[in-house]
Amino acid sequence: MDSNSSSGPRPKAAVVGVVGRTNAGKSTLVNRLVGEKVSIVSPVEQTTRNTVRGIVADPRGQLVLLDTPGLHKAVGVLGRLLNRMARRSAAGTDILCVVFDASEEPQLEDVGWMQRVARERPEKVVFVLNKADRSPFFETMFRDAWEEAKKGAPEGEAPVAEPVWVKAISTTEGGEKGVMDALFAFADEGEPLFQEDIVTDYPRKLTIADSIREKYLAKLHQELPHELGICVKKIAEGPDRWDVKADIIVNRASQKPIVIGRGAETIKYVRKCAERELKDLFGVKVALELWVRVEPGWMKNDRLLAEMGYIGGEI
User: How many angstroms separate the first and last alpha carbons of the chain?
Assistant: First the structure.
């Protein structure tokens, strides 16, 4: 037998930009594809505030998923930063995966992503019609919106590549299979970019901050949707326990009692839930020390935004 012959298909590798309108289900889909939680999930808009790398290990190869902040109507400095982060993360990837919430009619931001695809002509695009278990389901309207986007694209040397359309139910086990198959069909042969046992290279400080913020979003719902920031100040790592100090940052003094809760009920609940989740994530007991801090206009403060990982600087 020829010693150079292959016993099977060679592994594939690709970097995938997962983009779309805020609250379309991108983070839930990324977690489902990876097989465990790497990205914060909440029904509140603008949940994801950083680009999270989720790493998919599969017999076919490896996918590196960039879960980006959702594109939305930007308000203020932080809003513009999140939109810029989403657009930059989409550039330079091997495959662009645009996630649409097809349980609603196409929104302005959905059409905006379609127009960008038609204008910039990436070669490999997957359009995910998410929430396929909902009724009504607006697949036809999304396909019609794509046809209109193509008509408005400027003429170019390369034709507009047709995306692969996939339906998905990111909240259901197996509901991501069509997306996974489409991504690997586009992926080229290549060596893995990360070791097999790594599911994310997201910095620990940001993972801890996201866990705390997710628990607050679940507890407070729309009471403080976008005015809550988490800044992890210190991680003291021991062999059996990590001691973590973190600031919970609000815009106004009137928000401080909401974050603490009557009899400190809210902050105790958040600490307990986050400690439990972080122990599962890191495999070590995590003790959180949480302090509430009032920083008026923190979403316009470059120093604080950098400390939280939204703009350049050490994390």
Answer: 53
Whether residues 71 and 36 share a domain: the answer is yes
229 in the same domain as 128: no
Identify the pLDDT of residue 243.
Answer: 94
Whole-model pTM above 0.85?
no
Report the pLDDT averaged over residues 237-246.
Answer: 90
* Residues in the chain, total: 315
Is residue 228 situated within a structural domain? yes
When comparing pLDDT for 34 and 271, which is higher?
271
Q: Which domain holds residue 144?
A: 12-189
Reported as a single tens digit per residue, the pLDDT across 288-303 is 999 999 988 887 777 7
| Pair (174, 255) in one structural domain | no
Looking at the structure, do residues 43 and 132 belong to the same domain, yes or no?
Answer: yes
Query: Domain of 106: which CATH number?
Result: 3.40.50.300
Q: How many structural domains are present in the chain? A: 2
Give the residue with greater pLDDT, 195 vs 63.
63
Do 63 and 163 belong to one domain?
Answer: yes
